[in-house]
Amino acid sequence: MKYEFTTDLEQAKKLDQEDPLAEIRDHFYVKQGQIYMDGNSLGLASKDAEEALLKMMNVWKTQEIDMWTPYFHYGQELGNQCAKLINAEENEVLITGNTTSNIHQCVTTLYHPTKERYKILVDDLNFPTDRYAIDSDIRLTGYDPADAVKVVKSPDGKYIDEDAVIEAMTSDVALILLPTVLYRSAQVLDMERITKAAHEKGIIIGWDLCHAIGAIKMDFAKVQPDFAIWCTYKYLSAGPGSVAGLYLNKKHFDENPGLAGWWGNRDDTQFQLKHQFEHQKDVSGWQIGSPTMLGMAPLEGTLNLINSIGMDKIRTKSLKITSYLMFLIDEKLAKYGCTVGNPREDDKRGGHVCLEHPNAFQICSALKDRNVIPDFREPDVIRLAPIALYTSYEDVYKMVEILEDIMDSKSYEKYSSKRSLVV
Ligand SMILES: Cc1ncc(COP(=O)(O)O)c(C=O)c1O
Q1: Radius of gyration of the chain (CA)
Q2: Which CATH architecture has domain 9-30+311-413?
């Protein structure tokens, strides 16, 4: 998409005045004087999330054990709300567990290795938990990850080559797990093309949507992957460690859940407490134990807010504001050796901008001291996420102005390059 950006503050203010999502910012706890660019790690708290959490507390306080009757299907109900973000069918999406446990659930359900077809295909840029989960699930079946994990290597440490992924789909591959948006470079993989290629070769394929859900538009009715998993604490702003999402294509509802538990039992017999497990033949059959009600409630609030806006408007603003940030980096920061390390094309980049510089870690520390919250990723990446729901164009402008000052004065040099525990 083409925009006419300029480097003056007046334009940033004008862009805010014209922003159809400008007033959504008031739903969020945006700290006065702070510029928060880390919503792709932990989304800001909203009043909607807070109200939903307090409502759940009140349900517990006032209804005690009877609260289960109206809330028995809460995981599916929130799943149905979440399904709208990816255009999946209602009973294919569940809110449950965390991203990692949901990978285990899907892989142990759908990975049935044989002597001829036993490999799991992954890339080398995905978030490490996905790989840890895959390796351990392979070990559970008696195979050796050193042989059974097939890794597509990135040619440059930044991007995944889709053609190389498709070429790697050999007849010994049973299952594939890939990220939809790469957590570092924000590259968006073409889910439809890759899924189609996998299915043509009889391979099960799943997607990690952690950096995609709430950031980009997805159409599962078209893509028809076998499974997908995602967290809800980034672009969905449901709170630290909030309960995650799991999509299972309805064609797999007859499979036995890899990790079974009584909450996955058929509704009508669950409380008969028999020792014979019979799973519910929709995604709710993949629940394990009692749902984490207080950990799910904030998501109810944010999903209501996000669905009232719709992913079209959210993606439109995200593309515009990330374009604006890339424009300002090119115009104001390139001369200090800062480069844009994410794809430029609209359909190839997710919701954050990846600013690269050899002193990225020190620059992040300098930014934090100036009340700008970015995050750092090895080896030289500053991730900056202007979130469509609450970041203003003026925030972006001011952040770049602060960065310009840090680079020009070289004030970042006084900060240590040693990592702390959580960055
Ligand atoms: C792509 C991706 N997958 C998984 C995770 C984390 O998994 P979990 O939600 O189980 O902590 C992250 C966390 O940032 C991530 O970026």
Answers
A1: 22
A2: Alpha-Beta Complex (3.90)
Q: How many CB atoms lie within 10 A of CB 307?
A: 13
Residues whose CB falls within 8 Å of the CB of residue 267, separated by 6 or more in sequence, listed in order: 72, 280, 284
Domain 50-308, CATH:
3.40.640.10
- What is the Å distance from ligand 1's center to 277 Cα? 30
Q: Which among 41, 99, 130, 232 is the best mutation to test ligand 1's pocket, defined by most ligand atoms within 8 Å of the CB? A: 99
pLDDT value at 423 more than 70: no
Say yes or no: CB of residue 100 within 6 Å of ligand 1: yes
Give tens-digit pLDDT for 130-185. Answer: 999 999 999 999 999 999 999 999 999 999 999 999 999 999 999 999 999 999 99
Q: Per-residue pLDDT averaged across 304-312, rounded?
A: 98
Cα separation, 377 vs 212, whole angstroms: 18
User: Residue 171: which of 128, 219, 115, 215 has the closest Cα?
Assistant: 115
pLDDT of residue 2: 82
How far is Cα 91 from Cα 80, in angstroms, rounded to an integer? 7
Domains of the chain, residue spans: 9-30+311-413, 50-308
Share of the chain above pLDDT 90, in %: 97
Ligand 1 in reach of 96 Cβ (< 6 A): no
Is residue 30 within 8 A of residue 44, CB to CB? The reply is yes
Annotated binding residue 232: no
Q: Which two tokens stand for residue 107?
A: 């892989």
pLDDT tens-digit readout, 376-400? 998 999 999 999 999 999 999 999 9
> What does the pLDDT read at residue 421?
65
Question: What is the secondary structure of 284-327 as a DSSP string?
Answer: GGG--SS--HHHHHHHHHHHHHHHHH-HHHHHHHHHHHHHHHHH
